[in-house]
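Weekly structure sync, notes
Attendees: PL (lead), two postdocs, one rotation student
Agenda item 3: pending single-chain targets
PL asked that the sequence for the first pending target be pasted directly into the notes so everyone works from the same version. It is reproduced below exactly as submitted, 333 residues in total.
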Amino acid sequence: MGIRVAVAGASGYAGGELLRLVAGHPEFDLVAATAHSQAGQPVSAVHPQLAGLDLAFAATDPTTLADADLVFLALPHGESAALAAALPETVKVVDLGADHRLADTAAWSRYYGGPHAGAWTYGLPELPGQRAAIAAASRVANTGCYAVATTLALAPLIAAGAVAPTDVVVVAASGTSGAGRAAKAHLLGSEVMGDLSPYKVGAHQHVPEIKQATGAASLAFTPVLAPMPRGILATVTAVPTGDADPRAVLTEAYADSPFVHVLPQGAWPHTAATAGSNSCQLQATVDVDSGRVIVLSAIDNLGKGAAGQAVQCANLMLGLPETSGLSVFGVAP
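Predicted structure, written out during the meeting:
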């Protein structure tokens, strides 16, 4: 008998990726997958990649989830807090939504609106001290996808005093799965293919999370929808405060992080290289004209940006090896 795990909101893209990872995990037993409109349907009818997984979606309610040792919440923003509060304290929870990421009530109000549910332990193990904090926690707030890609690129540089925390500029392209599974006209294949389109320019909800996690004081962030199903490529630029080699700073910061790879000099991150993995690829340089530090960061938004990161946190919470059930290597072509 393994560790009993349930997934709420399992009919979405992140939920489907969680089901795949949990079903293949050497220590987990998948005991429940819940959904709203898909309740009663076989999991494989919604996620054909999971053919052979003999499980049907149940209704999303606390009684269905309370028998698990750990529950993943892959629900829309604003829906996790009430469900988590109804679960026994003995049940460990990893929330993939935004409900518990922000410590600042004013920031929550400005970017999300509605009541602020309070902050949980932040689920990015690569930040200083976070592995131990996550391991000691029973409630963990998983990171946002753009926040992962940007934070891993920027946080060590600010912490080391290598770049200024002000005037940080980020342009990040994401695959369409990052927008969720709901049918929307602007996500139709005929609308997305052959096109790049910015959205939520100057007001994206991951900005306060990135600032909180990195120590950045001001941040200009432009997200771009890219014609691909998975992946994020973030270009992070900042003003240097000295002559520190940014690549050397990143290499030292992630020397003991199995999922973060600072690429050899001259090699650049690719989203396809991280597909299906829980890895982040980084490369840094200094622009010869402006003198600004430039860091490129690539992740799978459903892997390190969502489900993979959540499993990584769950492993730590349950006293398992951090890499259990997760791939360091991407799938290609």
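Discussion points:
- The chain has two domains: 3-142+304-317, 145-301.
- The chain has eleven helices and 14 strands.
Action: rotation student to compare against the earlier draft before next sync.
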